[in-house]
Amino acid sequence: MSRKRIIAGNWKLNKTASETRRFLLTLRNKIAGMDALPEILICPPSVALETAIDAARESGIAIGAQNAYWESTGAFTGEVSTEMLESLGVSHVLIGHSERRALFGESDENVNRKLLKVLSGTLTPIACVGEMLEDREAGRTEEVVVGQVKSALMGVAHEHARRIVLAYEPVWAIGTGLTATPGQANVVHGLIRRSVGAIFDGAVADELRILYGGSAKPDNAAGLMAESDVDGLLVGGASLDADSFAEIIRAAA
Ligand code: 13P
Q1: Can you give the three-state secondary structure of the chain, one letter per residue?
Q2: pLDDT by residue (tens digit) across 14-31?
Q3: Average pLDDT over every residue of 35-57
Q4: CB 3.0–4.6 Å: which of 12, 108, 118, 235 could bond 151 by disulfide?
Q5: Residue whose CA lies nearest to ligand 1 atom number 9
Q6: Has this prediction a pTM greater than 0.90?
Q7: Residue with the nearest Cα to atom 1 of ligand 1?
Q8: Which residues belong to the active site?
Q9: What is the pLDDT of residues 99-109, one digit of tens each?
């Protein structure tokens, strides 16, 4: 089964709208001559989404949001709905990033509600899971990660399952310069794929793209993606620089 790779940049709380435009115009030029491009996605802050969509038009670069709420409208100060994102031309949305979980109190149940809401519309969700260092050291990686996957997917209809992308981001590797080794990542990706197969079926598991995230950089990208169950990368810090992000894209091409 060959799965098309995805190289996604999660910019977190970085770049204004004008910086976003400049980055995308630069990236367009850098990827123009490349063959066999992976799917390319940039997730800027929400206030730069409209600019990003305009700057990425007809470039093959998709634009995603970093978060969305599970209600469509109403008294939910500060939130953004999936319908609002769809109407801008956003195609993807991150769900349950570990920073949302750790810093903004998102529970497994919140992540599940968000995922179900996204799937009721047209966006492609990228649902994030990953264990903390103390989980890994206590030998609880499988229990934690598979538990997060099962809880995120609770109640997802079979016909929607094929739209889901998952990202494995070990919390201890995010922004720390510590990367999971390709072998460590592949073991967990395999566990995730098997648990998705058990929930849905083998065909869904075979098609599922599972991205790795956590200090992914130009010098480790190819090694991570050489693993059988690593279908792309969710890149934080190294996606902020057009040169390094383009190098990671080249490693996936
Ligand atoms: P870094 O690549 O900066 O470690 O961040 C990873 C991440 O959280 C992507 O979502």
Answers
A1: CCCCCEEEEECCCCCCHHHHHHHHHHHHHHHCCCCCCCEEEEECCHHHHHHHHHHCCCCCEEEEECCCECCCCCCCCCCCEHHHHHHHCCCEEEECCHHHHHHCCCCHHHHHHHHHHHHCCCCEEEEEECCCHHHHHCCCHHHHHHHHHHHHCCCCCHHHHCCCEEEECCHHHCCCCCCCCHHHHHHHHHHHHHHHHHHCCHHHHHHCEEEEECCCCHHHHHHHHCCCCCCEEEECHHHCCHHHHHHHHHHHC
A2: 999 999 999 999 999 999
A3: 97
A4: 108
A5: 236
A6: yes
A7: 236
A8: 97, 169
A9: 999 999 999 99
